[in-house]
Structure prediction request, 354 residues.
Amino acid sequence: MEKFCVFCGDKPKEKNNEHIIPRWLIELTGDPNRVVKFGPVWNEKTSSLEIREFAFDQFQFPACESCNSKYALLETRAKNIIQRILAEEALSNEDFSVFLDWMDKIRVGLWLAYNYLQKNISEVEPNYHISKRIGTKDRAVFIYKSDSKETGVTFSGTNVPAFQYFPVCFNLRINQFCFFNLSTDFLLSKHLGLPYSREIYFTEGQEMKHIMSKGRERVAFPIIRAPYNRNCTEVFQPMLMKDGFIRQIDHLNDTAYAKDLFEDYQNGVGRVFMAKDSRVTHFPIEPTDAWIPKTVWDLADLTDLLGKQVLQCQIHFLNRGGKYTEVKLEKRKLIKAQHDTAKRINRFLLEDAD
Prediction:
């Protein structure tokens, strides 16, 4: 594979690398040179999948120096927020908006990293990179708290074909907290009462086609109708990409109800919402500790739960997928074969976990 910058997708300018899991987080959670296992990844020489071991600090990929520098401020702000989360301190609406930006960066970065590590075994041609995906799609993070006193950072759900075909969700554990992150088009819109996509179609290009409906202008809980454990704090943020297709549906969002759900409608930045105890509220502007989950899990139980949850949710979103009527037979067969294989692998892993 030719090298590409994980931020912009172009051939990297200047010699630079990006730590997908940032160095500050690796240092915060243990020895930065500790050996960790990644995989399974594709070995070209043996034509097989294998587990690789290397120092955590070496989990880095090509980037332009200018692109890397551009996101330094986001990393600085994210570090401060993570430290406050681990200390169980009060956080604000703005803090969670920044945190969700950072989760976008990590999720897309891991998607590109495994594409690169596995030599594009899934034959996925990335049509976006980190810079095009931060803050452009509806997003959510479910926060789970464990009883663990051990430091560590781990992630799951990123090395399976389902994630390569549709990188909508993954798990990230940082010390005692686990974060289940989701983001995709119109993830929240229908049940937040906003205009939503009632039909989705694959196209001959890489973009999906959406047939839209007016919003119902009322909240319907749960916001996300996917299989997940609700003993957590759920944080949501609707987002609008303010170009291309989204501009064509501005008239659907031209209501007082819709605009009240956005912090900055012109730039497509939604307000942050929190769900606890089956209630959805605006996240306060002033810092609050209301985000701290009430349920405290055994870490082993939580790891098992979230490992299965991410596989189940990936199947759910692949099933939600899209209709094939607007693509030629050859592409239709390819998409169906890829998604069927991805779902079979996830089901096999779920059976194996039981």
